[in-house]
Amino acid sequence: MKFFKQLYINNFFFYCLIGVAAFFCLSFAFPALYNIAWNALWALLVFLFLDILIVFFTKTGIEASRITPEKLSNGDENPVRIEIRNYFTFPVLIKIIDEIPFQFQVRNFEIRRKIKASSEENVNYNLRPTERGEYFFGNLNIYVSSPLRLIAKRFIFDGGQKVPTYPSFVQLRKYDLMAFSNNLHPYGLKKIRRIGHTMEFEQIKEYIQGDDIRTLNWKATAKKNALMVNQFQDEKSQSVYMIIDKGRVMKMPFNGLSLLDYAINSSLVLSNIVLKKQDKAGMFSFSKKVENRVIAEKRSNQMQKILHSLYNIKTDFFESDYSRLYVDIKKNITHRSLIVLYTNFETLDNLHRQMPYLKGIAKNHLLVVVFFNNTELNEFIDKKTETIQEVYDKVIAEKFAFEKRLIVNELRKYGIHTVLTQPENLTLDTINKYLEIKARGIL
Predict the structure, then answer these.
(1) Could you give the CA distance from residue 80 to residue 77 in angstroms, rounded to a whole number?
(2) Range of the domain at 214
């Protein structure tokens, strides 16, 4: 029974069989072909038997294993490697059908290779998940054919493999390396001119050419009988909270990822930058209630705590309760902090309903509201109109785009900082805003 479960007849056998049938049909008009047709049929059956013998009666045949990352990075290309070892003494043709997780909705996954006799080969492919959670790989099916290509034998490996998908730690590593190498300009990060002296005192040192004469310490100068200046360092250990709206407005998809997942990936990267800048990073999410809380700290395991909390965030499709958010911030964040709020406003009316709570938060904290530009509207705006319906669509799209700019002006009017960005540029624009705030010393 096991033999028949592993045996598969290739298409090439049926093509040959059709050719033999054609010879039999032609033999009605050309009787000389009748014997040739029988000889061809017997030859095909003999080769079929030989093919079964050489493929099925080899002791080991093929070994294969699927090598996946310990965890997948959401929204990024993740490499998967299949290692194949051929123990046949002749080259084989293989067809790989990997049962990848159902979240990818790939029904026709197939890779074909030719492997030399007694050799090894690696087959690589990439997967781009768009949802966080657990991904289950099914069986790794390898169909092996000899050079005769009449039949194939199926080998099954690595069934039931589970891999979790976390927020984009690939981006985290990329921006971490960029910050370490000080090579930020090509990616949109920029230097901001520092305004004023909003820094912490570090030490008094002797004046050297190029020091700011406004920092001269006259008392120390009189004692040392030499020009002495105050030296400052950047303010450290300031609290930065990433707050993620997980209501229904954040379920809108762009390029396969929801706005919620874009915000989660950005929060992870920004938390890492904040900790590298010696500040305290914290986060929580909200909708009907506040959840997934991580208190802003600067401990060695802080990134692991944030990553774990971000992994567990799921939208609940409710209307977000900003009054609950305001009360929670007022109760639990008692000192002035930088609040980065990831949310989305589509209309001014929607903003005006939440404006009292945003103004209340901005009274005690430095509030940055991060929301999204609907990039799909640009297709309607840039599209050349030909019909009345297309004119209506373009006018409505321009109205929504203009309303986004009005929302920015409305927030700035009350001293609330804003980041209006496209989803794919969210991480860069948010980091830029944080660096600008740090450079200007307005926290």
Answers:
(1) 10
(2) 200-233
Indicate if 68 and 158 belong to the same structural domain. yes
Are 184 and 226 members of one domain? no
CATH number, domain of 93, equals 2.60.40.10
What's this model's pTM, rounded to 2 decimal places? 0.75
Same domain, 118 and 158: yes
Distance CA 169, CA 264 (A): 11
Q: CA 441 to CA 369: how far, in whole Å?
A: 18
Domain match, 141 and 179 both: no
Write the pLDDT tens digit of every residue in 107-163. 888 999 999 988 999 999 999 998 888 899 999 999 999 999 999 999 999 878 899
- Give the Cα separation of 294 and 179 in Å (integer): 24
Domain closes at, from 182, 215, 233: 233
Q: CB–CB of 328/361 below 8 Å?
A: no
Distance in Å from the first CA to the final CA of the chain = 74
Do 270 and 375 fall into the same domain? Answer: yes
335 and 412 belong to one structural domain = yes
What is the average pLDDT value for the chain, to the nearest integer?
A: 86
* Domain total in the chain: 3
Nearest to 260 by CA among 316, 339, 338, 176: 316
For the chain, list residues with pLDDT below 50. 181-182, 185-187, 195-196
If you count them, how many residues does the chain have?
A: 443
Q: Check which CATH number belongs to the domain holding 414 and give it.
A: 3.40.50.410
Say if residue 183 is in the same domain as residue 267: yes
Domain co-membership, 270 together with 146? no
3-state per-residue secondary structure call for the chain? CHHHHHEEECHHHHHHHHHHHHHHHHCCCCCCHHHHHHHHHHHHHHHHHHHHHHHHCCCCCEEEEEECCCCEECCCCEEEEEEEEECCCCCEEEEEEECCCHHHCCCCCCEEEEECCCCEEEEEEEECCCCCEEEEECCEEEEEECCCCCEEEEEEECCCEEEEEECCHHHHHHHHHHHHHCCCHHHCCCCCCCCCCCCEEEEEEECCCCCCHHHECHHHHHHHCCCEEEEEECCCCCEEEEEEECCHHHHCEECCEEHHHHHHHHHHHHHHHHHHCCCEEEEEEECCCEEEEEEEECCCCHHHHHHHHHHCCCCCCCCCCHHHHHHHHHHHCCCCCEEEEECCCCCHHHHHHHHHHHHHHHHHCEEEEEEECCHHHHHHHHCCCCCHHHHHHHHHHHHHHHHHHHHHHHHHHCCCEEEEECHHHHHHHHHHHHHHHHHHCCC
Tokens found for residue 351 = 């903003």
